[in-house]
From TrEMBL:
Belongs to the SorC transcriptional regulatory family. Keywords: DNA-binding, Transcription, Transcription regulation. The keyword Iron does not apply. The lineage of its organism: Bacteria, Bacillati, Actinomycetota, Actinomycetes, Micrococcales. The keyword Transcription regulation applies. This is Transcriptional regulator. It comes from Phycicoccus sonneratiae. Residues 69-312 form the Sugar-binding domain.
Length: 317
């Protein structure tokens, strides 16, 4: 038996030679045994001893701006199918660009020719589309109405751009995301063109969503409504939203009055989509993202290091 902690000089020489042949030259254990005139089993023991004694040090280095170890910790902590954590600076525009680019890579892995892709409007989703080189030949469906944001694309623009990449049809509708009252929203949803396009949502097999926190500056919907509506939503216990679906800290869907004023996918419809890819940036959204993950609203998460670190800490993982 080779005592790895205190290798004799002769064994240290043998362990070093075996390690160089195996790890650097790529020789098999059988070939090393023949060349060194020792048994294959002793080669295995020498390699084990080389690692234990520090002759060989193995380091796994993440490349491509992705933190593999943190990705695995978040995925395990929340039972996700996939998680990608990008390692990038914390300023918002660059975060969105990096997370959007990683989201594009994930989408290409997830979407197949038998899928139907659903897209909403969101800045991070827009960044994802800008990074997409192509898509499989899948139909693309609009999931939510439009919000007028200066300098930003509408969901109609985004869905049509994605459909052009796929070379397939786009199901779009022209409607605001938020209306003044529930009756107006209901009437708009009944209009034939809108109703026909919204009916396509039930066909969606892969939905992309961006998670927002119900605090100023971290949800486009929050910033678009007045203080009274914000307070009404907060009174339901909502900590975050995605696609106009609101959840409390336990990940349960809540139904503020604002939901009835929206033209968007419903909570039950979102639940039924087999693959739900969530994009989120910034540690300030940690409570909201944790709620969505705890509630099982996402199957895949693409996020940044600061938010992922907060999620792992909050989960005690």
């Amino acid at each position: 038996m080779i005592e790895s902690e205190s290798l004799r000089a002769t064994d240290a020489v043998l362990a070093s030679e075996a390690a160089r042949r195996y790890y650097l030259a790529g020789e098999s254990k059988v070939d090393i045994a023949a060349a060194m005139n020792i048994s294959r089993f002793k080669v295995a023991r020498l390699l084990e001893a080389a690692r234990a004694a520090g002759i060989v040090r193995i380091e796994v280095v993440d490349r491509g701006g992705v933190d593999g170890e943190l990705s695995t910790r978040v995925r395990t902590a929340f039972g996700l199918r996939r998680c990608v954590v990008v390692d990038c600076p914390d300023d918002a525009p660059r975060l969105r660009a990096h997370v959007g680019s990683a989201g594009a890579d994930v989408l290409l892995d997830v979407v197949g020719p038998d899928d139907v892709l659903g897209l909403p409007w969101a800045r991070t989703v827009s960044a994802m589309l800008e990074a997409l080189p192509a898509l499989p030949p899948v139909p693309v469906v609009q999931l939510s109405g439009s919000m007028v944001i200066p300098g930003e694309h509408s969901p109609v623009d985004m869905v049509r751009a994605a459909a052009a990449l796929a070379g397939q049809d786009a199901s779009v509708f022209y409607a605001p995301f938020i209306l003044d009252d529930a009756d107006s929203a209901a009437a708009l949803r009944r209009q034939p063109a809108v109703a026909a396009a919204m009916a396509e949502v039930d066909r969606v097999t892969v939905a992309v969503m961006s998670i927002g926190a119900w605090v100023p500056g971290h949800s486009t919907i929050h910033d678009a409504v007045d203080d009274a509506v914000r307070a009404d939503v907060a009174a339901t216990g909502a900590v975050g939203e995605a696609l106009g679906v609101f959840v409390d800290a336990e990940g349960r869907a809540v139904h503020p009055e604002l939901v009835d004023r929206m033209v968007t996918i419903g909570a039950d419809q979102l639940r039924r989509v087999p693959e739900r890819v969530a994009l989120a940036t910034g540690a300030a959204k940690a409570a909201a993202v944790q709620a969505f993950l705890t509630g099982g609203w996402a199957t895949t998460l693409v996020t940044d290091r600061s938010l992922a670190t907060s999620l792992v800490r909050r989960a005690g993982a």
